[in-house]
Amino acid sequence: MKNAYDVLEERGFIDQVTDAVALRQLLENSATCYIGFDPTARSLHVGHLVTIMSLAHMQRSGHRPIALVGGGTGMVGDPSGKTEMRQMLSREEIDLNAMHLKRQLGQFLDFGDGRALLLNNADWLLPLKYIEFLRDIGCHFSVNRMLAAESYRARLETGLNFIEFNYMLLQAYDFLYLFDHFNCRIQMGGSDQWGNIVAGVDLVRRVNQQTVYGITFPLITTASGEKMGKTAKGAVWLDGSLTSPYEYYQYWMNTDDRDVGRFLAFFTFLPMEEIRAVSGLQGVDLNLAKTILAYEVTRITHGENAARTAQAESEETFGARRIPEDLLPSSTVGRVVGRVIEVAVSDTIHLTGSVTASVTSIPTTIVPETRLRQGIPAFELFAEVRLCASKGAARRLIRQGGGYVNGERVLAVDEGINMAHLRGGQILLRAGKKNYHKIQIDE
Predict the structure, then answer these.
(1) Average pLDDT for residues 203-217, to the nearest whole number?
(2) Residue 64 in contact with residue 31, Cβ under 8 Å?
(3) Are 198 and 190 in contact (CB under 8 A)?
(4) pTM for the complete prediction?
(5) Is the dihedral of CA 300, 315, 310, 290 positive or negative?
């Protein structure tokens, strides 16, 4: 089995490491690692996928990952990467969010028979006695070194609250606790966590005279320089009730051509020899690679059935992606494209035919039949179903030629959308090239 360090390095995960040589040697045998997730919302989002996938790769390489839900640290708030103090949540809100995150992480990791652990640092942080904590833990921290950390230094100009100043101590204590109780020797996280991770490594050394290790991963941006996981509608959530599997699938289908190979390495488990073949693809071949990316990431996040439904609906909406005969799995490129048949969508994408599927996951609004018979001005309907942020934005969209009904451009902002527009019991609205919404009637 390939060393987990080599797997992460080959796929582009590694940004900084406390001791690469010693860490790689440690990973020759089974080891325990952890990443913390603060429960500031009921769902994780696409921006968390790099850290989640790193834990999954560690487990697939024979190691035991710990997914640590920050029920305790979440009551303080990590200042890293923030220009102002995070919103303070109640204990009840944090506990509810933590419950959702635990269920969500189970999609990526196998928690059976102790192969991975789900822990909540509220279990050991909340019972701490403040004076004892300051005496036993605080004495190992230099205020000067803490202020030199990027996460704190960047906040000094805008104001750093004292409660946030404690965050580094608490995260370092997490590492010490996990080392003492679970023999955890590796902490991983995004590059903005480097100062916190190094503080934990140093605390374990000072208290236990033991060496532990830290790895950070790059904060992913798209080729256009945009932050990963942000769209005009907001964050792309991993919770299917917040971002539907269809919307999630389309997010990956709309990947910039320059990012396809990189994202296949980060967000799927496909072999790297196949992923490398994508770098030279263009046109229809590259679109097929995007199909693989979208299917695989949706399958990993939402399961096989949701991915197949999203794929089938995408094919029905945008047209079937046919595989040309010269791309059959007989060449290097063919092996990549062949994954669509072999692994991904063997019963929804075919060499010679199109896809038949029920449309279930495009965002849908039910309107009364009586209202549709009267006719609804196009700009009002586009705003009502949130294809546009406001009626003014809907008017601008339509005037600029970006509003469509059943694939036909809307010519007037007040054009009435009515029963005559029904096709198979529904009306398909589109804003721009990518955003769809379905209208059905309540009979």
Answers:
(1) 97
(2) yes
(3) no
(4) 0.72
(5) positive
- Which positions are catalytic? 40, 45, 48, 82, 86, 171, 192, 227, 230-231
Q: Which CATH superfamily is domain 244-344 in?
A: Tyrosyl-Transfer RNA Synthetase (1.10.240.10)
Q: What is the mean pLDDT of residues 353-380?
A: 72
48 pLDDT tier (thresholds 50, 70, 90): very high
Only one residue has tokens 């506990």, namely: 95
Per DSSP bridges, beta strands 64-69 and 117-120 are parallel
Q: Which pair of tokens denotes residue 100?
A: 């959702």
| 8 Å CB contact between 187 and 214 | yes
Phi, psi of 318 (to 5 degrees): -105, -5
Looking at per-residue pLDDT, the higher value among 346 and 237 belongs to: 237
- CB of 108 within 8 A of CB of 52? yes
**Residue 425: is it exposed, middle or buried by C-beta count within 10 angstroms (0-12/13-18/19+)?**
exposed
Three-state secondary structure call for residue 143:
helix
What SS3 state is found at 67?
Answer: strand
Phi, psi of 414 (to 5 degrees): -100, 15
List the domain boundaries for the chain: 4-217, 244-344, 364-442
* Cβ–Cβ < 8 Å for 300, 107: yes
